[in-house]
Amino acid sequence: GQQVMQIPQYQHVQEGEDFTTYCNSSTTLSNIQWYKQRPGGHPVFLIQLVKSGEVKKQKRLTFQFGEAKKNSSLHITATQTTDVGTYFCAGDTSNDYKLSFGAGTTVTVRA
Amino acid sequence: EPEVTQTPSHQVTQMGQEVILRCVPISNHLYFYWYRQILGQKVEFLVSFYNNEISEKSEIFDDQFSVERPDGSNFTLKIRSTKLEDSAMYFCARSTTPFGYEDYGYTFGSGTRLTVV
Question: Touching check for A39 and chain B: CB below 8 Å?
């Protein structure tokens, strides 16, 4: 079955530093979505990427979709304590109504 | 305030009992999903539901599971005979388009924590 892999599993960041989390798929994805889940909360949609090589920004968050549409990344600059949570990527191969989530990157921030 | 309401927020049940988890999407949507998340683990797809029919289901969604939209509003997940390994957070989600296209993604409910004892 389709696998969406995420690394790293855990990211401990000093406040103010940057970090990147990566998402890789064994198959070509028709789209990739990113979600954030705060501790004890539910996944909240952040963004969707559809086009090969697409880059989107949301304030301090930069999302990228690879040229081959098999990988994606989320880069956060100047990390803040509000960035704490687990970031999931989710993708689908196409037309099977089954969005598969990666295992997530859990981010903790040292003040 | 989530746009998808799930009840109950926490359900404790004995092994072998049936449970029904409910989801009420506030808006009128066509695409519904159930996901589960075992504590500390990934969000796992269970089933997608479109036009009052199952569109896709995972290997997890075996004969013990069923979904319904009985009154055109509530969306339910039934587990007929619960097992210990069914203990998880169950999330309902909805989208306005397949896979949540057009920058809206999936809207998840706040979840039901199911504990099987």
Answer: no
Provide the 3-class DSSP secondary structure of residue A102: coil
* Distance (Å, whole) CA B80 – CA A27: 35
Give yes or no for a contact between B90 and B35, defined as CB atoms under 8 angstroms apart. Answer: yes
User: What chain A residue is nearest to B110 in terms of C-alpha separation?
Assistant: A42
Whether residue A105 has pLDDT greater than 60: yes
* Out of B41, B42, B50, closest to residue A97 by CB: B50
| CA-based nearest residue to B60, from B33, B36, B41, B82 | B36
DSSP summary character for residue A95? S
Please give the angle made by the CA atoms of A103, A30 and B97, to the nearest 5 degrees: 90
Q: Would you call B55 exposed, middle or buried from its count of C-beta atoms within 10 A (0-12, 13-18, 19+)?
A: middle
Longest CA–CA separation in chain A, Å = 44
Nearest CA in chain A to B46: A98
Tens of pLDDT along A55-75?
Answer: 999 999 999 999 999 999 999
